[in-house]
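Exam revision sheet. Question 4 asks you to relate a sequence to its structure. Input first:
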Amino acid sequence: MAAPLLAAGLVRGVPRGPAALAAAALFVAFVSPLCALTVALFAARGLHHLVLVLVAAPALALAWRCSAPAAATGGLLGLSVFLWLWHVPAAYELAWRSPSAYWLMQAGLLGSAWAFWSGVLADGRDDAPIAAAGLVLALAGQMGLIGAILTFAPRILYPQHLATTEAFGFGALADQQLAGLVMWVPGMVPLAVIGALLLRRGWQRLSLP
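Answer key, structure tokens:
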């Protein structure tokens, strides 16, 4: 998956930097040891999803700007569905057992995140950055809520990792709590920064005579 994207980045008119970043992020997500680690640790699964949503997808959006600002709303709806779906225990079990379900959910997560960031990063009306910042904060709120559920759940929600976490020195519940912290810290910080930058850009545009 990464190699075709990197090759496409060499085509005239496609920014090489974002295309290379997207290829690198997809390599980390699906080829590097992180991919194998997701089988053992649910926290690694959470980090894997952050790489897709917060690195690969915005890089793809910067490399191939093909969406209007309005696409961000639809992208957020789709991204919300797949984010929550990945954390529903029954759906997670299905993805665990079925390769087709796994790849469908991964494609849905990446594709909807790509659409979301394409709309957020598109240059439209003067007030578009402010609206985009609101959507980014809405995504941050959902990720924060999922992180809170994982961190404070009193029981193990994903028994698929019961037999695999002890090798890393902690139990499955601690792994689940770590996954929640991963969504809170590495997930919230870039979204907060992007939201603040968008608000600043929108304010500057609206303040111009």
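Marking note for examiners. Residues 2 and 24 are 7 Å apart (CA to CA).
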